[in-house]
Design brief:
Nucleotidyltransferase, domain 5; five-stranded mixed sheet; elongated; alpha/beta; 37% helix; 138 residues
Length: 138
C-alpha cells in the first residue's frame, strides 16, 4: 500500500457498482426472454396426435411459433395477427436471420387443413423451408 503525505496508508478499493449493474441487467434480460418464450406456447390447445414422422427437438428457441386455435384466427406467439401481418413478420424475420429460419405451427386437433395450408404456402413463398407441427405422442 502506498502512504499519503501524512503517513497514513492509502487503501485500494474496487468500484463494484458497474459490475452489479451489468449483472442485474443480464438477470432481467434472461427473465424477460424466458417469460416471452413461455407465453408463445402457453396457449392451451388439444394438439393433434402423431402417427408418423420423426421426433424433432423440443427446443422452440429461435423459432417463430404460429398458434392456430381455430379456423378464423392466427396468433404469432401470443399476439393475434392477420394473414398480411404474418407475411410481413415472416419477411422481416427472414431478412434479419443469419441462418435458416424455422416455424413451429401449433393447432387444435379439430382445425381443418384448409386453415393451415395458407400458412405452409406462405412459409414456402417467403423462403422458410423449416416448418414443423407441434403434436403429442400416442
Amino acid at each position: 500500500m502506498k502512504s499519503t503525505n501524512d503517513g497514513k496508508p492509502k487503501s485500494l478499493a474496487f468500484n463494484l457498482t458497474p459490475l452489479i449493474d451489468v449483472t442485474f441487467l443480464l438477470i432481467v434480460f434472461f427473465v424477460m426472454s424466458s417469460q416471452m418464450i413461455n407465453e408463445e406456447t402457453a396457449m392451451e390447445m388439444t394438439l393433434p396426435r402423431e402417427t408418423s414422422g420423426e421426433i424433432a427437438e423440443k427446443d422452440d428457441a429461435g423459432k417463430l411459433i404460429v398458434n392456430v386455435p381455430d379456423a378464423e384466427s392466427i396468433f404469432l406467439g401470443a399476439k393475434r395477427v392477420s394473414f398480411s401481418e404474418l407475411r410481413e413478420r415472416f419477411l422481416r424475420e427472414k431478412s434479419r436471420a443469419t441462418g435458416p429460419l424455422a416455424v413451429r405451427i401449433r393447432t387444435n386437433r379439430d382445425v381443418p387443413y384448409g386453415a393451415i395450408e395458407p400458412i405452409l404456402v406462405l412459409c414456402a413463398q417467403t423462403g422458410i423451408y423449416d416448418a414443423s407441427f407441434a403434436v403429442v405422442g400416442e
